[in-house]
Amino acid sequence: MDRRGFLLGTTAIGALLAAGTSLAFAQDDAATPPLTDFPRNETLIINNPENPSTNPSNFNMWVAGNGSSWSNGLHQLVLDTLWFIDPDNGLDGSMYNELATGPWEYNADFTEMVVKLRQGIMWSDGVEFTAADVKYTVETQIANPGMVWSAPFADAIESVDTPDDYTVHFKLKKPNARFHSLFTVRWNGAWIMPKHIFEQQADVKAFDFNPPVGLGPYTLNSFDPNGGWYIWEKRADWDKTAMAEWGEPAPKFVIYRSIPNNDKRLIEMVNGDLDMIHDLSPEGMFALANQDPTARGWFPGFPYAHPDPTLPMVIFNTQNPMFQDNRVRWALALMLDPLEMSMASYRGAATLSAIAMPPTGTHTDDYHGPLQDYLIGYELNTGKQTIKPYDPTVGQRIADMVRPQFGESVPTEEAAIHKSFGFGWWKQDLAAAGELLEAAGFTKQGDQWIMADGQPFKFTLKTFPDGVINRLGTDIAQQWARAGVQATAETVPDIFGNELPLGDYEAAMGWSIETWGGNPDLSFFLDSWHSDYVAEPGERQTARNWQRWSNPKLDEIIETMRVTEFTDHDANVALGNDFIKLMVDEMPVIPVMSFNVFSAYDTRYWTGFPTAEANPYANIVNNWANSKYILTQLKPAG
Amino acid sequence: MKAYFFFALKRLIQLICVIFAGCSIAFFVSHLSPISPVESIIGRVSGQSSYSPEAIENLRAALTEMFGLDVPLHEQYFNFLRRLAVGDFGPSLLAFPRPAIELVMLALPWTFGLLTVSTLLTWLIGNVAGGLAGYYQNSRLLKALGILAIAIQPIPYYIVAFMMVIIFGFFWPVLPISGGFAMNVRQAWTPEFVLSVLHYAILPAASLTIVGIGTWFLGMRALVSNIVTEDYVTFAELGGVKRNRIVFSYVMRNAMVPQLTSLAMTLGAIFSGTIITEQVFSYPGLGSLLVTAVNRGDSATTLAVSCIAVIAVASAIFIIDLLHPLVDPRVRAE
Amino acid sequence: MFAVFRDLIRYNVEFAIGAVLVTVIVIFAGLSFFSPVDPTQIYLAIPDQPPGAQYWFGTNSRGQDMFWQLSFAFRNTLIFGLTVALISRVISIVVGLAAGYMGGWVDRVLMFINDIFVAIPIFPILILFYFVLRSNLNGFTLALAMACFGWPYDARLIRSVTLGLRHREFTRQAVFAGMSPMKIMLEEHLPYVMPIVFATTMANMIWSIGLEVTLAVLGFTNINIPTVGTTLYWANNHSAMVVGTWWWILIPVIIVVLLFIGLFLLAVSLNEYIDPRSRLRRMGA
């Protein structure tokens, strides 16, 4: 063989070997035939906001940290639990009885809870769902620490009995009027495990639950071995699931596609390869509305975005000596210009909130509207004078400000403006801020503030590496810097993973307040704010009270809440008012706005999506498990 | 043959040293991290559920042992080398407790395929075109190509890749812009699957190729324009040897040798381009995995990807080096 | 030195074009010292203004005047590229001279290490640096890390030149005159390799700036510092391509491409100057 022949030969063999090794990994189910196509009029394509799954073939989402995806359709379409609560109006009220036939029943002192279950509900493999599955779910997770709901179950539950196949009886360790909320889905909740599948496993934590067996109307059709997409197919016996009560889900197939890049989401929708987008950048949303006549957001025009019941805020590390005086925290709030924050973060499409309550769902009617008089009359003593810091015209002024650019699509009615842009916010008042700082012992040298101990008032504000929260943080630090505080913004990649729980920050952008959205009750975030849970400096703080703030009055509110019936609307609103007023006085966090998500949908292939103006029956933000109810309202277009 | 054997042996020793050094650097850099992988996992796991302090303490102890962090650094290093030999990088954090190496192996074939195809294409097209341009120095077309090559070659990978997305996914949507293959085929040894993979690889491979060609084109053109002045080429021309034969057998053959050496040298850089390209096209390879691992603070997977990259690139260079004597008689005689 | 420069400008079109391009961009970057705005501040100008009389390069969606923003970006990028080039030049000169002049086992050891460094893919290692340092990764640290990997190819070049010098008459004379090896290397040999050092500086800058852009686009550098890479990061972050704020991406890309072309032409023409064979060809010999 001459040299050329040898060369060609080796190259060819090398190439073949390369191809061979590449595909050696790709033959798990070579025997199965290729899939059918997915006819567009039978298929709904949804954007999964998460990155492609890192453990694509694992569906055991009861185990924390194993890389199984949740919002790839698994928790929306396949799993189920006792109740759902919608952040918006809901199909028939915001409370849904899913696997339960009616609301929870507590005994008089909230130490026992009884649930009645629906009959005739089938797991997707044809086995009937019974009370034994609920009992198994609880006991298995208590027995296996490290599962997602192990700790809350172990903390709350003394025992669980099943008097008959359709009744579950919980005995609790201590009075708890909010115990049912563990089984109530806001965006996620304690999902029921199939006993007949898991009890065959030697190690439930190592089980990959592939294919998943669920109680929802869909089952797994196929998935990308690289985690990029998941395809779910409607069960033939969909009418044997709890969701059948609200109608038949229209699409035969639902595809959840992971598209991490914002721009590509827009492109895929314009090309007709995506029906629902989870989130875009503000600019991307404006561009989509321009370029795709059949695409829209939650609002028909500006500000488009769906306000999530999550409250982006400045979080002070109140264990840091710098931020222990509420006058200092108030001074920092009064240095901020609400209009600038709205423009900087959301290009004006922000819904501002001066109080520690997301201005979304039913909260504007329960809290923001009724509290306007209190806020307008609120007085703050700066040490030199008493001021009224609240400006009720902020929402109106933002609407006026964006109208030249977005014209007709900006609402003009007062009520709509309040829903879209918020009611009001604190006035920027540098003089009052200065007086507060002086009262707290600060002095001004040149144009810089010096703390009582002689050190310059200097700190970093940690913020997200991208998106609106990044912009908001950058702008806030800049506003403080202009007011003589040496604040600098610093981007960190995983603020909720590291800095907030470890307390490794001075001030941070993020949120410690998330609510049900469709109900005035605050237990969703507030229970974890009890001083019992506040960690020592340097220790890991358990979820949500990232500011590590405690207050006797707060504990009192939480303890009362624990023995107030969830459905007692007025009592809960009263507790909520107490909480809001305490937060206004103390200002341990500076509330800024709701987390507005630029979700979009395209009506080219499907119609019947919820709208803010006419039919706000569900949250269009589709990583929420609640978004499944949309499927029952859809109709093929044309 | 004996000479070739010693040559290969020498290269093999070098390969082992490269892998050893590269992986060691990766190990020490990653262990300088102030973020302990154990604390990251605890953060992630306990963030999804409220843990009791005792449960956290137990988890911490178990994880510390699992990662082998309970011994001094030098012992950790020796353990790392020992585990490296069997490809054990510890459990990943992205898919805890699935071994990091499993995630890497899932991603590796995709990067490998994309890299191999685009590198071969780039190298062949660039060199042939560059060789022709060096030989036929008066051709207008080839001159224009040269200017184009100078202009395109410095554009960052990201821009070219994203322009491809915009052009072929948006303005003229004819090609798929994300993923490795279509949703209506199964990953299996079938013609449908292979065609789908090729279909989905067009844009990523094309963007890598477009950026890469310029370098080879310019390099080859410069080499060839030097070689054409050599006496033996003039002799061949005078002797009436066919032009095609002169270009390919006399001129390019000689210029290929340094270009092969450069290929070995630039593989690392090509790899970094692939990371970006994969990111833009959501291609399921090592680059996407590395970016996810870094963003999620998964040190085990990050270290695993780095080490595998070192091993893969070094091995590729090793193979190119082994081919060297076959194209260049001078090296063979050494 | 100056005469060489003058001749190059006069007789070598490529060098002239390259020099003009690089000079213009350096001047542009230098303007940042007189900038009226702070590049870290946002929303100081009306966002999304296309290039025009008031904002020459337009404004971005963060309300920054792109003219001044890019001026800062190119200053940081050029300083970054130069830092990498300088540090890695020092390493490659030391290694190349020592290996070439000393020969023997010193040469073998150094070249062995050299070959190892050539084969290590630097990008994952740099990402590891970011992984460890996160927002503490400033421009200088990154430059230092990159410089540690940016020398081997050029060290080999320098070594090959020094190998030739070793047997030249003046080297022997210097040895007989009792000059120390250090002195011989620095005073006798260094001037001979300087042209190569200059030529490789350009190539090295292209390399390091390209890497910085790649890292920054992924968000793996300190995105609080304006550079060419972070400019593209923020543009991407604000969907600049699909939204139509094309100037946010196009202008930095054009300038960086011009910079690269300039550096490339300088490197090529310097190489030509070093390699007389191709110079002869140009003169028509």
TrEMBL record, chain A:
<keyword id="KW-0732">Signal</keyword>
<dbReference type="InterPro" id="IPR039424">
    <property type="entry name" value="SBP_5"/>
</dbReference>
<comment type="similarity">
    <text>Belongs to the bacterial solute-binding protein 5 family.</text>
</comment>
<protein>
    <submittedName>
        <fullName>ABC transporter substrate-binding protein</fullName>
    </submittedName>
</protein>
<dbReference type="GO" id="GO:0030288">
    <property type="term" value="C:outer membrane-bounded periplasmic space"/>
</dbReference>
<feature type="domain" description="Solute-binding protein family 5">
    <location>
        <begin position="96"/>
        <end position="531"/>
    </location>
</feature>
<dbReference type="GO" id="GO:0015833">
    <property type="term" value="P:peptide transport"/>
</dbReference>
<dbReference type="InterPro" id="IPR030678">
    <property type="entry name" value="Peptide/Ni-bd"/>
</dbReference>
<dbReference type="GO" id="GO:1904680">
    <property type="term" value="F:peptide transmembrane transporter activity"/>
</dbReference>
<feature type="signal peptide">
    <location>
        <begin position="1"/>
        <end position="26"/>
    </location>
</feature>
<dbReference type="InterPro" id="IPR000914">
    <property type="entry name" value="SBP_5_dom"/>
</dbReference>
<dbReference type="GO" id="GO:0043190">
    <property type="term" value="C:ATP-binding cassette (ABC) transporter complex"/>
</dbReference>
<dbReference type="InterPro" id="IPR006311">
    <property type="entry name" value="TAT_signal"/>
</dbReference>
<dbReference type="Pfam" id="PF00496">
    <property type="entry name" value="SBP_bac_5"/>
</dbReference>
From TrEMBL, chain B:
<feature type="transmembrane region" description="Helical">
    <location>
        <begin position="260"/>
        <end position="281"/>
    </location>
</feature>
<feature type="transmembrane region" description="Helical">
    <location>
        <begin position="301"/>
        <end position="323"/>
    </location>
</feature>
<dbReference type="InterPro" id="IPR035906">
    <property type="entry name" value="MetI-like_sf"/>
</dbReference>
<dbReference type="Pfam" id="PF00528">
    <property type="entry name" value="BPD_transp_1"/>
</dbReference>
<keyword id="KW-0812">Transmembrane</keyword>
<feature type="transmembrane region" description="Helical">
    <location>
        <begin position="197"/>
        <end position="218"/>
    </location>
</feature>
<keyword id="KW-1003">Cell membrane</keyword>
<protein>
    <submittedName>
        <fullName>ABC transporter permease</fullName>
    </submittedName>
</protein>
<feature type="transmembrane region" description="Helical">
    <location>
        <begin position="112"/>
        <end position="136"/>
    </location>
</feature>
<feature type="transmembrane region" description="Helical">
    <location>
        <begin position="157"/>
        <end position="177"/>
    </location>
</feature>
<keyword id="KW-0813">Transport</keyword>
<keyword id="KW-0472">Membrane</keyword>
<dbReference type="GO" id="GO:0005886">
    <property type="term" value="C:plasma membrane"/>
</dbReference>
<comment type="similarity">
    <text>Belongs to the binding-protein-dependent transport system permease family.</text>
</comment>
<dbReference type="InterPro" id="IPR000515">
    <property type="entry name" value="MetI-like"/>
</dbReference>
TrEMBL record, chain C:
<dbReference type="Pfam" id="PF00528">
    <property type="entry name" value="BPD_transp_1"/>
</dbReference>
<dbReference type="InterPro" id="IPR000515">
    <property type="entry name" value="MetI-like"/>
</dbReference>
<feature type="transmembrane region" description="Helical">
    <location>
        <begin position="245"/>
        <end position="274"/>
    </location>
</feature>
<protein>
    <submittedName>
        <fullName>ABC transporter permease</fullName>
    </submittedName>
</protein>
<keyword id="KW-0472">Membrane</keyword>
<dbReference type="GO" id="GO:0055085">
    <property type="term" value="P:transmembrane transport"/>
</dbReference>
<feature type="transmembrane region" description="Helical">
    <location>
        <begin position="192"/>
        <end position="225"/>
    </location>
</feature>
<comment type="similarity">
    <text>Belongs to the binding-protein-dependent transport system permease family.</text>
</comment>
<feature type="domain" description="ABC transmembrane type-1">
    <location>
        <begin position="74"/>
        <end position="267"/>
    </location>
</feature>
<feature type="transmembrane region" description="Helical">
    <location>
        <begin position="12"/>
        <end position="34"/>
    </location>
</feature>
<feature type="transmembrane region" description="Helical">
    <location>
        <begin position="78"/>
        <end position="102"/>
    </location>
</feature>
<feature type="transmembrane region" description="Helical">
    <location>
        <begin position="109"/>
        <end position="133"/>
    </location>
</feature>
<keyword id="KW-1133">Transmembrane helix</keyword>
<dbReference type="GO" id="GO:0005886">
    <property type="term" value="C:plasma membrane"/>
</dbReference>
<keyword id="KW-0812">Transmembrane</keyword>
